[in-house]
Amino acid sequence: MKLPTAPCLALIFLFPAGCARREAPLSDALKRAVASAKFDGPCSSLISMEWPPSWPVPAADGSGRRFKIFFYPLLGTQPKVHAPLGEAEVGTDDGKVLGCRKLQAPLQELPGARWPDALRGLTVSEFDRRADRLFAATEAVGALYAAKAGLTPEQTRAAGAYGRLFLEMAEPSLLPHYRRLNPDFWRWLAAAGAPSIPDAP
Amino acid sequence: MRPLSRLTLSFALAALLSGRAGAVAAADKAPSLAQQSAAAVKAVCADLPPRCAEFENSLEEIGWFQEDAQAYLKALPRKPDLAGLNPHLAESLRLIQRTQHQYQGVDERLGVLALLVWETHKALAAVSEKWIPEASTSLHASLTALEDRSSRLERASLLYRGPEASTHAASIRSLGQDGIAALDRFQEVSLAIDYSGNPMDDPVLKKRKTANGLAVRLSALRDRLIALEKRAGSGASSRLDFSTLLKPDAKPGPGAWARADATSVKLPPLDAFGAQAAAEAGALMTSAGSSQPLPEASQGQAGLAAADRRSLLQVPKMRVPAPKDEKAGVPDIGLLGRLKLMWARRSGGESELQALRDLGLTRVVGDPKGRAALVHQQDPMTCTIVCQQQMLTASGALEGKDPKAVEHSLLSEAFTKGYLNVDDSDPASLKLLGTPFLFTGNLLKEHGMIVTKTFKASNQDLAQAAGRGGMLLVDVDPGVLRGNKDLLGISHSIVITGAEISRGDGKVLGYFINDSDSVPLSKGEFIPVKQLLDAWHAGNSSIIEAR
After folding, report:
1. Is the ipTM here above 0.90?
2. What number of C-beta contacts closer than 8 Å exist between A and B?
3. What's the gap in Å between the CA of A153 and the closest CA on chain B?
4. Best mutation site among A32, A36, A39, A94 for testing chain B: the one with the most B CBs within 10 Å?
5. If you write DSSP's letter for every residue of B337-351 in order, what string do you get?
6. What is the pLDDT of residues A136-163, one digit of tens each?
7. Which residue stretches of B285-399 are H helix?
8. A76 and chain B in contact, CB less than 8 A
9. 0.80 cut: is pTM over it?
């Protein structure tokens, strides 16, 4: 356990919250790029504002700084997930949309709730904190995937942690669509011994 | 690089293109790309005969577009002509989108069709890049001249009460006509900015900021003219009349800013959105304002009042804003009040707000109570439409007894103009799939309102906009706003109808909103400032104001 520092000891009775141990801030470049994607570049005239973005998946370009996302409609008062209708590629260098397209697919409702059951009890801020971790882990694993090199044990653990967190957070009914974004990435993740999205039967 | 990346990357870089070099290059390359396109369609047709007609139609449409656009570029006027340029730009974007569907959804070989359109789009965008600043500067100069004329008329209006009044009224009308011309030019600049590239890129944001400044001046000028008309005794003009005079189906009136060349709105087949309801709405969307001829100013009093010959120097200045001093008028709350406030501040959050209210230390800007009546429960994915409906109704540009029918009518209008995403896999039953960001606020513009769009706005920008007292269309993340993680990531349009402000320091304590998608319906609902700002920044922090 980390002991409080001297100034904290002095101030602990006045401002107890100020001495709590803080986690290192996570990079939010990817989070910001994903959140602003539908307002940016060609997406601004193609993607409906009402369609939320998916979690990002590393792209196959080999840079480790490009990620693919899709957009899907949520319809109804108890929002029902529908198959994706748009797709984009975002970069973390400048947070810009690098490509965007509308998918030519009929509106198709998918079964099940939006989020996995395990997330049911979370508040929005708890959910947000996990989302921040997932964005940071995605950026990290994107770099590992791009390096195309053998993983150290620590990197293998990181890839495993990413896979678990992703499956914990991803919309269950959209998993096949996540796989379609970059099948090579999911195969690579599985080969690294991490939880991944299996190939469709 | 894949065609998609080429296309979209080029799209993002459109702002960097300049001069006519692009136009010349496009003209040089067009024939070879055109031949390649014809060959690609032939090849794809051989593999996919059932869809051949679709691709051939695209090729034919592109051919027409190329012909028109190239002719326009060849005879390019020297002076900015955004009115002539904008339709070509709009058509190129529509065709790019259409061909994109085909090469991404059907066959990559069709990508060459998109490139063919793209080449011409680049040339058009390069012209637009050059013209927007020129048109803005020219509009700026025109506005300065109009403001000057308006000031002189304001002073004159206090002087003349006799026969000169009719000359004066004629001058006001003439100024009004010039104002309409300025409004048209502003709308052209605004549209060109929408078509000119990535709305989030700094150069585009800068252009939009300039245009917003022009819009503010334009609307101030309009208000001054309306006041002048009133003073001149016409009695016809008001904000409400102004909006209705600009309505597309309104009879052109002689009042200030009446638009004589307006065209009517054509509605598409309405099966998709409820034919009956929309038909009712069509009937309801009649002119609400007066279209009676403007009487000659002070005719009835002609001869009764002599010209006022007071010195110009003694004429009071018009429209001098009252000094804003938040401290002025703050009630003395006494020692007990201060203690109560101090205690509430320690508790924080709602206690502080309640204490401030109890002590009379807050004031409300806008009209949350009056505007609460404007909202109704929306259909799925129509939040942006219903927000614009509220703003148009408040301005008097729309009138309808049945808000649902008016919503459907606006929906049809937006659909016709390509502002919506629609699932058209079954033409007999179209399903609405929402509004892309770039088209938000366009219906306001279509109905004659002066629209400003501010993207990546700050908390201060929002507070200032609310402080002006108008209605604001903003996008929020409903998941953050309502604390519902099932809704996270959606961008939902709401209307800010007012704000509650601390009298002491002028800080915004919260915003009043109309949220057409909430159950129960949110009508003038108070949202604490942090909650609203969090939800607003989770989107793209945009503000759309209509004047």
Report:
1. no
2. 146
3. 35
4. A39
5. HHHHHHHHHHH-HHH
6. 999 999 999 999 888 899 999 999 999 9
7. 334-347, 349-358, 368-372, 383-395
8. yes
9. no
